[in-house]
Amino acid sequence: MIDGKDIKKTKPEQIESAETYNEVELVLSDPKKITRIRSQMSLEDETMTIDFLRKNSYMFAWSPSDFQGIDPEVIVHRLNVDPQARPIKQKKRAFGVERNQVIEEEVSKLLKAGYVSEIQYTSWLSNMVIIPKASGKWRMCTDFTNLNKACPKDPYHLPRIDLLVDSIGGCALFMMDAYQSYHQIFMAEEDMDKTSFITEKGVYCYNVMPFGLKNAGAPYQRLVNRMFKKLIGSTMEVYDDDMLVKSRKERDHLQDLGKAFSIMRTFGMKLNLTKCTFGVRGGKFLGYLVSERRIEANSEKIEAIMQIPSPKTIKDVQKLTGKIASLNRFIARSADRNLPFFKILRQVKNFEWSEECEKALKELKVYLATPPLLANPMVGETLYVYLAVSIKCSKLGLGER
């Protein structure tokens, strides 16, 4: 039975859509362990959903002690270090009292979790980097700059974001995130010492794959592609540690989710409950706002362009074109509109922000003030081919009248 006290309506910030959600206690003995489900469900569907999630509560992790990691027989992360590369030991950096305290607290957590071990001898040595968060807290990272330079890039590709986003329109969705995803993969024993880092209290190395390594994304994508190969493209989509289960028919959603959970249970993967939302019809996925039939541009990305000042250097133009590239799908005649910016990038010397560029930037901002919505076509709907041609470029599109 579902007690009404177990359910609280909310509209979480990370799910930007018109829907509202119920917060549900997943573990009745611990009110902090909650998950989110769509509030517009029928009472029967809501009851079945909550029962399903509570029966599968072991699929979620709240601390590193809640999971064992992926079996090393399945995958470990090996560093492909160029044999010609000379090992580099970075000189220890000096930090203030506050930052040193943050480092020691974070390292203590890593030691307790079993993510790192103290080490005596090492050929490679990196420093820690402390980055301030918007919340006022600190984020600790490892500066693997030298090690990354010595490792050729892994060519394993990530899925195309636009295709993933297009495929989920009109589906019931379960958006989920692996708990400390990269840390669920162990480092190969012979490469652990290469991940060594230094603090005031000692030298440590990672036992698990750390964030910040050049090729960390590739083995993780290999893992999830291997795990969910029978489901990807039909009832699942996976991009790095962003995963979702999708169902065309809402009545099939628990069954589809059960298949995904079964695979994760086999491989020992755990989910981060705080980043999971169940049974939604839309939300924020890979930088897009996806609803039942529409794909909207991320308002944060639009605002970043709206607030950008006129570039004064080549680097400023590169930043501008990078921001524009993330919104290309929503900009009609994007190549034509942005041609003045790319002309400047061809002229590395004698930088000049011309009147043509300033006009193009102003027009782009006006256009993005009311960006178009992309819609998934309905089955049997008549579509038209549109061809746009200018002196400088041409573009073809498929859409409604």
From TrEMBL:
Domain Reverse transcriptase, which positions?
A: 131-288
Tell me which InterPro entries the record gives.
Answer: DNA/RNA_pol_sf, Rev_trsase/Diguanyl_cyclase, RNA-dir_DNA_polymerase, RT_dom
Residues forming coiled coils: none
* UniProt name for this protein: Polyprotein P3
Report the source organism: Sesamum radiatum
